[in-house]
Each structure stands twice: as C-alpha cells, then as structure tokens.
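Re: beginner question about structure tokens

> Can someone show what the tokenized structure looks like for a real chain? I only ever see the sequence side.

Sure, here's an example I had lying around. Input first:
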Amino acid sequence: MLHSLFAKLSLLFIALVLLISAVDIYSVTQTSKRFVDETTQRANLGLAQSIAREMHVDTVTGQIEAVGMNQLFMSAMTINPIVKLFVVDLNGKMIASSAKPEATKLQAVAAQPIRDLLDGKKPLPIYNDDPRNPGDPKIFSVAPLLKPDGSPLAYLYITIGTNDQLDLASVRHSYILSALLRSLAIAAAVVLVAGLVLIYLLTRHVRQLNTAVRQVQEGDFSARVAVQSSDEIGQLGTAFNSMAAKIESSLDTLSRNDSLRRELVANISHDLRTPLASIEGYTETILLREHVLTEIERKTYLQTILKNTQSLGRLVSELFELSKLEAKQTTLQIEPFSITELIQDNLLKFEPQANEQAIQLASDLPRHTPFVLADVALIERVLQNIIANALQYTPQQGRVSISVWPIMEASQVRVSVADTGRGITPEDMPHIFDRFYRSGPMREKARLGLGLAIAHRIVHLHNSQIDVQSTPNVGTTFSFQLPIYN
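And the corresponding structure tokens:
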C-alpha cells in the first residue's frame, strides 16, 4: 500500500501541508513579536524627550552637567529598570552611560537608525545597537540635547529592553494570535482532508486503469475502463480502450485467419487430390491395359487426363494471381477503352459453354456508351470470373444477362451481370468474396471459389466495389462501376 501512487501523493501532500503550517506559525509568531516591539517603541517614543528636558547644558562650557545627568539616569532606571540611558554625539560615539564602564562593550552606535527614528518616516519598529549586548539590537527612544543657541549637541539614547520569555508568553496567550492559530489549524485540517479526498478520486481512475492493464496482461482482452473526463487521465483511458479493442479485434482476426488457413489447407488438399487421383488412375489404366484398350478408350482417358491437368493449372494460376493481388504487387495499366466491345468479346467466348448448358446469354449494351478508364486486362478478368460464376450456378433453360448503362451525373458507367440461378442465402452473403468459399450444396461439388475473390480485389484496386443483390431460387445480380473517360 505504501508503494501505491495514492500513498506517495498523500504523504507528499501531508508533508507539504505540515511544512506550510510550520512556516505560517513561525511567520505569525515573528510578526506578533515585531508587533509587541512596535507597540512598546511607539509607547516610549516620548520617553527620551521627557528625560532630555531635565538634563541641563552648561551655558558657559556648552557641556552636559555630569552630576545632574548621573542622578537623572539613576532616577529613570529606578522607575523603569528595563531602560538603559546613554549620551552619544551626533555620529553615535559614546559620551556617557548609565551602565558601569565595564558593562559597556560598544563605544559607538549606528547614527542612521537614530536619524530615521527622529525623522519619523520609517515604519516602526526600528532597531539599533545595544552597547551592553553587541549583536542583539534593541528598540530605542532618542531625543536631541540642544545647546543654548538651539543647535544639537548630542543625543539622549535610551535602549528599551524586553523580557523575551515574558513577551513570548504574552504572544502565546494573545487572543488574536490564538484565533489566528486556531484558524490556521482548521484551514490546514480542511485542506488536508479535501486534498486527500481529491487525490483518492484522481488516483481512482489510475487504479482502475492499472486493474484493466493487469487483466489484459493475464489474457482478458475484453477489459475496459470507464472514461469520465477529458483530461490527461481520461485521454489515457480512451487510448487504453482503443488499444484493447484493436488487440481484441486483431486476435479475432488472427483466429479467423487461422481458421481460414486450416480450411484453405483442407480445400486445397481436396481440390488438388481429386484431379491428381484422376490423373494417376487414368495413367495407370493406360499403362496396365495398353494392349487391350481401344483407340476410342485411350483417347477418352487422355482427354480426361488433359482436362484434370488444365484444371490443376487453372487452380495454380488463380492462387498465384490472388496472392499477387492481396500482396498489392499488381500494377494497374490504366487506359481508355470501350466496355461494350470488351463485353461482346467475352460473350462470344462463353457462348459455346452457354449453349452446351442450354443457358441463354443476353446483353443490353447502349450504342453510345462512353469509354471507361481502367485496366482492360484486369476488367476482362472480372467479367470472365463473374460470367463463369453465373453460368456455374444457373440451371438449364436459365438466363444470364449483361447490361451497361452510363450514370452521367456521377461520371460513371455501371456494369451488371444477372442470372436466374439458385441465388445466395442470407447466411452465405457475407462470405461470397472470401477465398475458397463455396456455398450450401455446392461445397462438395464445385472447385475452389477463387473467381469472385479475385474479381472483388481487382474492382477494389480500381477504387470501386462489387454490389450484390440476390434472392434465393430467383437469381443473383453482380454490378460494379467504372469511371468515364473524358
């Protein structure tokens, strides 16, 4: 617990509050002491003046009468024992003292504080040297001693001693100081409690984030934190949630990819094993029964071997083509061309297959269709794959139609291939462009479904997409758009 962020911040905050409170108490105490000194000095400002009136200056010599001065010093000290009287010249040099000569350790005091006190412009208290205690300044009272002609002769300099213990006790028992100290204690307690509560609330989000991080560390990538602010901690929580979501999504993708990889291996093994087994079987038959086979049987077997070999070559070619498209290694050769002419050429290629399957091939190709801007070889590949897929899933007496119409306001030409086949079920619809996916009853009959996956990626390379509309047992329509060449 002591190593937690809350504990460290709390200890630091408590130490700061105690330090500030101690500084405030010291400051208040010192201020109170200065207040006592100011009050005492202000009350005794006239003390030196009243005593100076009793001191006489010889009119002949212009000097202070020593006998009278000593008697006056003794009387003043009897009345107020804490005062000490000195006579100093205008530069602060000692002339006479009420203390014994051996007790007077300074022979001069600073003259500037004397002038400041007489001037009355500097705020009280004003401190000056104590001839008996060097290094311990005292408050004082001062008055000029005048010659008969009114000019200053010297200064009567009175130090006002204080009882430090008595002053400290009076300060401590002062009502004002007690009130200030009570207020300071209450304020410090309130600040301390409020600060600890705020630190707890602020570190609560950090603790929640730490708990979520530990959950992620232990493998629970669904952990999230509640973001309740937009400050740095809130931004950190948002970033963590985003990171956790991406990790979770990446893991799901990896899991799906791993599942697809296993399915891919199984599908490839199945689709390669079937023609290979056929090729192997017919080849062995030819070799073992070479002398008994008729010419027609031998030709039939060889045609079957050729068909399976072509199927294997087509499968390998499609796999290679799809890998290049997924790795983005295919470079588009963009050029203008007539999409209607390209469709007509491909319809002629598929016409024998359609006639063999008793499927009608139809087209709706406007005469004035503008040229499109695309890679003609790749778009031809898209058309071939979609038409071949339509013929594969359309029964006899069915219909496959291709239509083209310009969308001038969008500067696009839309190409559509519609069939009257068995359609696509809603559960199969999200997967029709997945690699090696075969739907429903065709899973075991059809070869690997790479055609639509290749077509989808080619169209995506042209910054377009293939739209699919399908109704089970009614038919399916594939369509995509290409930009018009201006």
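Each token stands for a local structural state, so reading them left to right follows the chain. The CA atoms of residues 13 and 195 lie 7 Å apart.
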